[in-house]
Fold this protein.
Amino acid sequence: MDIYLRWKRPSRLVDNKRMRTTSDFQWLLSTFVLLYLMNHVTSQRKETPYDLKCTTNNLKMWDCSWKAPSGAGHGTLYEFCIDNRSHSCYQLARTNIEIPALSHGDHEITIRSLQDAGSSTSEFILNEKNISLIPDTPEILNLSADFSTSTLHVKWNDKGSVFPRHSNVIWEIKILRKKSMELVKLVTHNTSLSGKDAVHHWSWVSDLPLECAAHYVGMRCYVDSPLFSGHKEWSDWSPVKNISWTPDSQAKVFPQDKVVLVGSDITFCCVSQEKVLSAQIGRTYCPLIHLDGENVAIEVHDISVSDNSGTNVVFMIEDNVSGTVVFAGYPPDIPQNLNCETHDLKEIICSWNPGRPTGLVGPRNTSYTLFEGFSGKYIRFKRVEVSANGSYHQLLFQMVPNQEIYNFTLYARNPLGRSEATILVNITEKVYPHTPTSFKVKDINSTAVILSWHLPGSFAKINLLCQIEIKKINSVQELRNITIKGVENSSYRIAVGKLNPYTVYTFRIRCSAETFWKWSKWSNKKQHLTTEAIPSKGPDTWREWSSDGKNLIIYWKPLPINEANGKILSYNVSCSSDEETQSLSEIPDPQHKAEIQLDKNDYIISVVAKNSVGASPPSKIASMEIPNDDLKTEQAVGMGKGILLTWHQDPNMTCDYVIKWCNSSRSAPCLMDWRKVPSNSTEVLIESDQFRPGVRYNFFLYGCRNQGYQLLRSIIGYIEELAPIVAPNFTVEDTSADSILVKWEDIPVEELRGFLRGYLFYFEKGERDTSKIRGLESGRSDIKVKNITDISQKTLRIADLQGKTSYHLVLRAYTDGGMGPEKSMFVVTKENSVGLIIAILIPVAVAVIVGLVTSILCYRKREWIKETFYPDIPNPENCKALQFQKSVCEGSSALKTLEMNPCTPNSVEVLETRSTFPKIEDTEIISPVAECPEDSSGAEPENHVVVSYCPPIIEEEIPNPAGDEAGGTSQVIYIDVQSMYQPQVKPEEEHGKDPAGGAGYKPQMHLPINSTVEDIAAEDDLDKTAGYRPQANVNTWNLVSPDSPRSTDSNSEIVSFGSPCSINSRQFLIPPKDEDSPQSNGGGWSFTNFFQNKPND
Amino acid sequence: LDENGDSWGMLACLCTVLWHLPAVPALNRTGDPGPGPSIQKTYDLTRYLEHQLRSLAGTYLNYLGPPFNEPDFNPPRLGADTLPRATVNLEVWRSLNDKLRLTQNYEAYSHLLCYLRGLNRQAATAELRRSLAHFCTSLQGLLGSIAGVMATLGYPLPQPLPGTEPTWTPGPAHSDFLQKMDDFWLLKELQTWLWRSAKDFNRLKKKMQPPAAAVTLHLEAHGF
């Protein structure tokens, strides 16, 4: 038994070792098997101590216990021996012992029970691997709650001093909620043992405010000592500690005034003694979650950003209401575009954009602190106003003396978080000066001024760059940049030169630091008039001799403002020759002309302009005019605003050319204006506001030599040609029966308004009252136009007119500018007697000739006329026709005798006559019998003459001479045209009587059908064949091809079109053309064919 | 809102002028105008404030958010115990004399004005602050008018007891929700007080109306 146990134990230990390395499942399985075996063994060895088990809670001492043998009583002693190097035994009266931890390896344990009955010994092999490490149950030292943050704080001692070695400990903490102890959280917390007692803390934030439900906390631990090879187990759970809140009498809602991040989930609860009816957040009602007692909670998911006053959470309680406010917002955005600059190098302004609105206002708004790293100074941003539109914020930071580099950090903070932005600036490079003030301008001289201004700031250490805007009236602004040393007293002065005298300037200034960052705003504008200077040039001068040639008139132009350099007060004029000098002084300014009586000597005239400062240099001009013999007057027309004059360069001309011009209609002296051009130029474009279109101007080009001026060219011209404003006056000089002589006058130059290019003369027949001048240019055919381009021509003879006729004459002049108005006149030509006589004689002669011709014709055709109009009436007694008829038809008993009693030709009706028809020479009736065969074979139906007899219907059966064609008899039916439809019944009766009729004409329904096609058709429906059928050989006509669709489906009707006239259809019976003509072959005629052929005569 | 209020004020002023036009000073036969005009003026001002409060309350309740701006929201009076109550039993009200009524009015508006100024300090938006400041000015005018009426009638002004001066105390002790409830009730009490004052002044006006045309036009456009 002992051996068994002895052997058994190691095997179990071996198994245990293996178990550590195998999976849990295998371990469990082995344990199960072993337990079974152990039970089996112990049942057999109840006589000895058994089931030795050892645990430890601190790795120092092992606590071993065993089961007493079955016979052991109360006083049984046990000897517990550990068989190691120092064999030690313990005598004890109980079944457990605490022994110091044994070293690694197997230890033989012998337990001997000493009892009255005897002793029994059990031997065990003990190894550390058999020991279970079960730590002591931990104890929570303290459980506290921070209700404002819904946080639980747990504090406990790890009792690390009892463990000899460094070990890791896993703490498992459970949190239970409500009185029903619902587990809400189970967490593990890892620490390590350091060999000393240590107090640990653990905090947990509850989603449900702690006020609303009791919370319980318990914990256990698991020591994971790496050197301990035995079995490790969790400790027991500590006793739970709880946290609860003693409610007020009034209902309260938690959490109170909480700030949360937008989008987060939050639970609100209401602690109430009474029943809560409903809960709402904002306008939204929420389902209630019941907690202990009457307490309820609601869960809000994904909360949206709050309004300014927060989002209200309200619980409706019976007769009461309770609530809280939650503020959902965002943490502060990173301050954007943080920028620091200075206006005056005294104060730094840092501005930034707060970025995304946080949604929190009032005390929860973002607070900003600006911190400077080098000096350690900081300032806080105090918000005065809630900026609705996220505008820029700014802070003023007093500059630190002698510090140029600043390292700013802007901290933004609100209850939900914080952010920051930094900027490192050299403040001397970030100068944005204030707007310059007290801007003043003072004169230095006529071309220079001093500008002074005030620019607040201590810029003594830097240079300023200032920009001066100088603007003249009607001129482009000029910008001048200057660099100026910064001063402490803020006053600046600068001289500005290169200005024009007596000119109004507008100045303004702006500044920046020399290291440019930003320009200041422009200062106010200051207008200033510079002082006067002497005129820089003499006036532009010209001279003209008066019309009587005694006085010389001197003209000059006022000086332009940039040459006058001031207000011109007066002019001095002097004329000097070798002999004498005349002068006129102090001619006041608005007068720009002076007249001096001079003889014809050569004078030099000089004109001087004076202003308040002094006199201008004199401008000189010679009085002499050098004559020019070969002078021609030319024409010129301007272009647009001006007129271009060109000339060839003349080397003799040493000084300027002068072009003067005047209105040609003005009286002398002719001068409107003049213009001087340099001697090297060969063309000039004369432009003047005085030029008007349609006005003729004279232009004179003078060349200047030393002695004087010579007229080189004389030009008349228009700046723009216009149409004449008047029509030429014209009169009729002479009138004859067929011609008119017209004469007209010139148009005055003023009214011509251009160079005359010709006249247009229109004439037409017309009375004064009826003929309106309408659209002469519209090209009416009855208007004749003569264009007279020879402007010297003043008369016009209009020939080939009708006598005694009123003519409308119109004359107009034209220039290149257009047509002038019309002048019209009515003239009646004289009477023409010859024409009248001719008009009488011609009709008379015509009448005589017509009568004569008629007489001759009548005479020559008298026979025909007689036959036509007065035919001989035959005597019925001499009628041979009856006898002839009898003799011919006697042999045939079937034929009826034509009774001639009523045969009095009472009327003869000619239906139609054709030239191709064999002429019926007389009214004697040709026997139809004789005619029949010919008709049936080939006579043309157009020529068929139906002659009706007194009895409307006469039927005859005639043997057909050409009987080989269609056997049987033919019937000829003569019908009156008026009763054409009557005999339709008859042929059917005849058909029954004589089915095999002879040759000759036959009505269609009696005709035997030879054609196979028609045979089929006839068999199909005999009634259909009641229409027309050709009398003779139908096939030879070849009217329809057998395959023609029209022929097959409705043969009877279609065939009748191309056939000789039937009695039913009243059409002509023979095709009009040859048999092989395309129309007859084409399967039938169209109506158009029919009508085309009809009027062929 | 301000412009609207101003125009109504002008209208009220104009109405007052027209009402008193028959009693121009030139026609006045008595030297002392008596309390009538000032009572009338106080009454007019009360009506004007009633109107002004309607628009202010709309804005402010919207600012407080739902459910405060819902028309059927009628919470119990929580924590607003320090506010002077305007509601009074009809019998009690009838038993009050003029002096007592005026005194109660004066005291109530003194308190309400103080709370209202506290409200103004807390308001988050500038527009709301402007509206509140405008209303405070008007209410100050009403207080002055009541003091004027009391002086005319020879009643002494109530002296505030030391330590009972109502002060607005911002602090964490008062939760935001309770603060909102207070604001709600402040507006509600103001409304009731103005209604009650209008009734008081109308009653007083009728009582003080002289038998003949002894009413004098005495317009000092305080408060407008």
